[in-house]
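User: For my dataset I need records formatted as: sequence, then structure tokens, nothing else. Please produce one.
Assistant:
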Amino acid sequence: FNFAQSLKANLEANLLTEDKDWNIKGFIDVHKNIYPISLDTKLLSKILELTTIPIVTSFAKKYRLKVYLAQHQLQYPDITLEGAEIKNKKYAADIKTTYRVGGKLKGGFTLGSFRGSLRSPLSTRYSRFPYSQYAKHWILGIIYTRKKEIEQKRIYSLDDLPNINSVITDLEIILQEKYRIANYVPGSGNTANIGSVANIEMLRNGTGPFAKYGDKVFQDYWVNYLRREDAERQGIRRPYRNLNEYFAWKKKPKG
């Protein structure tokens, strides 16, 4: 049982049409009217998340895995899986999305906070189960390209379904362990979130800068990472800004 390979194939079969278009066409009401979806990226991300969760749940049922969903929006991870097929260990699966502009990625995935559960590994304040109980932390990433806006003023019927254009296409599923695609700098802006690499081949192959060092180095790096404003607030120098500086910092005597 190859967990990543099996789950990825299942997601591709249930999220994509044969042309790699999104198989979601709109919202339907009790009168069987279909309302088109806009190109708003926040809306698209939420719908992708909501449609992915039951697909993963169905996959888990097939392999007799227990499923625990996040109990609120800010809790990590989106999905927890546990069962004999994964050696009775807990796997975290977090759903992330990004999109292409002009054939290139707009940016990488945001991989969650480097505070919270990562720095409180024995607590359930920020996570469904203590962070330390998870054997693996998977990123279920979805990359897409936005198509032309379809007619927003029109209400479609079920008979129109075959002719309704998908608003996104060329969907690609990235299923990698978090450390394998994480970057050594935060995500966009001044957020306290870990950013992923934005190179599509690195995302596909899981060959980010932490890949050769492993999950322990990844976690230690981000547990001790300070942004410039964090260091200024504490009145100290930033210990490091990249992996080379991190390894040099690790060699320095502490205290």
